């Protein structure tokens, strides 16, 4: 992933630590979280313009990666979802594979 500045991690310490371990190990440490596969998603902050890094559980549909913006069942959308709705070009890392993608709702 080519970034002009370091991404800002989640404000939740355990999520930020998960992201740092995952990226540093190319996913060897942290790909599975509680038995579920995870990926790194970097969005562009819709207000700040800064890169924002989040860890998400994902599924596959053929060669597509699927993530769900559930925010744990809350009535509001997670911030990463609001960011990608504003700027759908994102950076993704799955294990050691890093690529640019275009998010679709």
TrEMBL record:
What InterPro entries does the entry give? F420H2_quin_Rdtase, Split_barrel_FMN-bd
GO MF: coenzyme F420 binding; oxidoreductase activity
Q: Which reaction(s) are listed as its catalytic activity?
A: oxidized coenzyme F420-(gamma-L-Glu)(n) + a quinol + H(+) = reduced coenzyme F420-(gamma-L-Glu)(n) + a quinone
Q: Which GO terms describe its cellular component?
A: plasma membrane
Q: Matching Pfam families, A to Z?
A: F420H2_quin_red
Q: Which family does it belong to?
A: Belongs to the F420H(2)-dependent quinone reductase family.
Q: Which PANTHER family match?
A: F420H(2)-DEPENDENT QUINONE REDUCTASE RV1261C (PTHR39428:SF1)
List the protein's name. AclJ
Question: Which species is listed as the source?
Answer: uncultured Thermomicrobiales bacterium
